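Table S2 (continued). Query chain:
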Amino acid sequence: MNDQVVLVNENDVAIGLMPKLEAHQKGALHRAFSVFIFNSNKEMLLQRRAFGKYHSEGLWSNTCCSHPLPGESAHHGAVRRLREEMGLDADLQFLYSFQYHADLENGLTEHELDHVFWGISDNVPVLNTTEASDYKYMKISDIQSDITSNPGSYTEWFKICMPEIANKIRLKF
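Corresponding output:
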């Protein structure tokens, strides 16, 4: 079941399952989540995706992201994957959802209804090296500047949602 993603309609109603790779090959709309962790200095924890991932390898992105398992809520999946990818636990709060469509390398397409969560943690990440090859903390303004200067260094979904994250997080701190 870990290989399956939940296909959804525009209203986030589950309509079926599909193998993850096939969903990315066909550009099928499916449920996803993205987690943004900040430290007490208001710096965002970024991860560099592991080399060898089937897409977006070696690119910088938000703290973690993935897909809920069939029958699993997006929140529960976000908590699970934060622990699995980054070795962190945090009180995750729902921030917003968005839908996006982005063409990737290798003929793959991201077409996701992404549930965004955020939390605060000053704990040191313990990377699962099959998922993440590195991490760093950055201020939002520095991330935005670097995305402008080096857009090819960041994942597509991260570039798409960063403006909204910046606006919403300013209201939280």
